[in-house]
Amino acid sequence: MDFLDQLFTNPGITRALPEEFAATMQMIGISGFFTLLVGLPLGVFLSAGAPDGLRPMPLTNKVVSGVVVNITRSIPFAILMVSLIPLARLLTGTSIGPVAASVSLSIGAIPFFARLVETSLRDVGSGKIDAALVMGSTRMQVVTKVLLREALPGLIAAFTTTLVTLVGYSAMAGIIGGGGLGRLAYNYGLQRFDTTVMVVVIVIIVLIVQAIQLAGDWAARRVDHRSAATAGRGKRLRRQAAVQVVGS
């Protein structure tokens, strides 16, 4: 009963939680949008510009892939966020709050998502690409109508994984001034030794991750024509088998 009483009387839950939850969703939304906006074209370039890609650009690809993407991915996010405080202040006019934290979140997530996009595009069979080129398709048409369409389930799964990662990043951002559930857990749960707030924050973060994962898995299954075709063949085979059993 004490735990239930604190859920309705604890100011960290009744007053601070709604505001910090909204801040976390704001950070995830803004950084997720810019990660998709920049990371998807960057991943396409990493795949198409590779030495064995659709439009080989070995030198440029090596610089972007080996220097920009790899170096950014290798920096721990806590250090990256602190080092990007001047940039966040320049772009947003402030160094604290969810909007300012979204700058670091986006820069930290874009290379991660771009690598996942590159991996998904490489899984597309080369035969489909060659067939499109033989039929006279331009490179841009191959990218938009073959590569991206065939890799769409993998791209959705990659973006889902990136959003889940951003949830964890946003919790760390809260400790460094970004706000959100991370700040709530640190200020109330850790510094004030409030176990109730800590438990509630952990449960909410788990629920957010589960909701993102379930939505991403559902969307990936909806656009996966391979699984749909397999399911269709399975239904036809079951109907044929039933007809044969009845006829016999």
Automatic annotation (TrEMBL):
Pfam families, per the entry: BPD_transp_1
ABC transmembrane type-1 domain span: 21-213
Main location: membrane
Keywords attached to this entry: Cell membrane, Membrane, Transmembrane, Transmembrane helix, Transport
Membrane topology annotation: Multi-pass membrane protein
Matching InterPro entries: AA_ABC_Transporter_Permease, MetI-like, MetI-like_sf
Location in or out of the cell: Cell membrane
Positions in coiled-coil regions: none
Membrane-spanning intervals of the chain: 27-46, 67-88, 94-114, 155-176, 196-216
Similarity comment text for this entry: Belongs to the binding-protein-dependent transport system permease family.
The protein's name: Methionine ABC transporter permease
Source species: Arthrobacter flavus
